[in-house]
Automatic annotation (TrEMBL):
Residues 29-380 form the Serpin domain. It comes from Pyrocoelia pectoralis. GO terms for molecular function: serine-type endopeptidase inhibitor activity. Belongs to the serpin family. GO terms for cellular component: extracellular space. Residues 1-16 form the signal peptide. It holds the Pfam family Serpin. The keyword Signal applies. This is Serpin domain-containing protein. Keywords: Protease inhibitor, Serine protease inhibitor, Signal.
Length: 383
């Protein structure tokens, strides 16, 4: 029998307990490096969303299947500790002000399939999952129903997450995690309508891109060991920041990427008067997480060796794990609009010019709970 895992994210976040922080960073770095192997363009990943969906599965796994899952996603070997952790975290997923944050889990169950009572209780109470019956045999209608739910939970940003070809009469479970974040910069940038800047995709080639810019006090650090500049831009609420990591040379991004663990670590920032220029950007990434997880040692779960005895007495294996992620960044934060920033009128020279005119890494971090999502921007011509 087949189990399908689907992950839909826009801007995504997780308010984690202390014990989750290091696993979050390690998992973020691991999957970044794996996605990098098969992606030579722009991309964005939501480690949190993948972490949640695989944690749901891990609590229904047994034997070697459970060991492989917990090791790959850096969870405790003790399932009770994992359950307790997510019970605490799940209560903190919904925020409507001063930014919008939502996280929703749903389990679609074949009409003839029975979930073990204990696993159902874990899914509902620890992960706040909804459970719905569905006819996977009518794959087109089932795909439409799942995709409609995902769209409703991501403000219509994620569309067609699941294809009808992924579903058939052998499918018994589809687990979906949908996450959405919408926020504005703590200090919005000025009206930059029509403003463009050169962006160097290589040392010799540049393209003009729509951009935003301004001047304000930001957390800034130049890491000489990594040969890169770090700049934090906070969202309203001061709980979420976007960090831009700009290599000193425009052909050295790959050196940074293979030290992604160090890039994601906290930096000894100082508040500096910074003049910034940055491209507006929008991207969507569709990731085959099955291949990523297999590279991280999760192999049994996708074969007849799989043991998901905690979910059902029937033989189950995971057929697919797919993540689709969307992000848009502009002068207001998450949506395009005009605003006036008094910082543009400063007359003295800024302490730092931060010109994001070549490929860079970016990530969103909750100030207490770690990495929310991570990606890279290397070519404006790639969506």
């Amino acid at each position: 029998m087949r189990v399908l895992l689907l992950i839909a994210t826009t801007f995504a976040t997780l308010f984690a307990e202390d014990q989750y922080l290091q696993s979050n960073i390690n998992f973020s770095a691991d999957i970044y490096k794996e996605v990098l192997k098969s992606n030579n363009g722009n991309f964005i990943i939501c480690p949190v969303s993948a972490h949640i969906i695989m944690s749901v599965m891990s609590l229904g796994a047994k034997g070697n299947t459970a060991k492989q899952l917990t090791k790959a996603i850096y969870l405790p070997d003790d399932a009770n500790k994992t359950r307790y952790m997510f019970e605490k975290l799940s209560s903190k997923f919904e925020t409507k002000d001063p930014y919008q944050l939502s996280c929703a889990n749903k389990i679609y169950v074949a009409q003839s399939f029975t979930i073990n009572k204990n696993y159902k209780e874990i899914a509902v109470n620890a992960f706040k999952s909804d459970i719905a019956r569905i006819n996977f045999g009518d794959n087109a209608r089932a795909a439409d129903e799942i995709n409609s739910w995902v769209e409703s939970k991501t403000n219509n940003k994620i569309k067609k997450l699941v294809q009808k070809e992924s579903l058939n009469s052998d499918t018994v479970l589809v687990l979906v995690n949908a996450m959405y974040f919408h926020g504005f910069w703590l200090e919005e940038f000025g009206n930059t309508h029509g403003y463009k800047m050169p962006f160097y995709v290589s040392k010799t080639k540049s393209v003009k891109v729509a951009a935003f810019g301004g001047r304000n006090d930001f957390n800034y650090y130049h890491n000489e060991e990594l040969s890169a500049q770090f700049l934090e831009i906070p969202f309203v609420g001061n709980e979420v920041t976007m960090t831009i990591v700009l290599p000193d040379n425009n052909d050295k991004l790959n050196r940074l990427e293979w030290r992604i663990n160090d890039v994601l670590a906290e930096q000894p920032y100082k508040v500096e008067d910074v003049e910034i220029q940055c491209p507006k950007f929008k991207m969507e990434t569709n990731i085959d997480f099955k291949a990523v997880l297999q590279s991280l040692g999760v192999t049994d779960a996708f074969t007849t060796l799989a043991n998901f005895g905690g979910i059902s007495d029937m033989d189950l294996l995971i057929s697919e794990v797919r993540q689709k992620t969307f992000i848009e960044v502009n002068e207001r934060g998450a949506t395009a609009a005009a605003a006036t920033a008094s910082s543009l009128s400063m007359m003295s020279e800024p302490g730092v010019f931060f010109n994001v005119n070549h490929p860079f890494i970016f990530f969103f971090r909750h100030k207490d709970h770690g990495i929310l999502f991570v990606g890279r921007y290397i070519d404006p011509d790639l969506y």
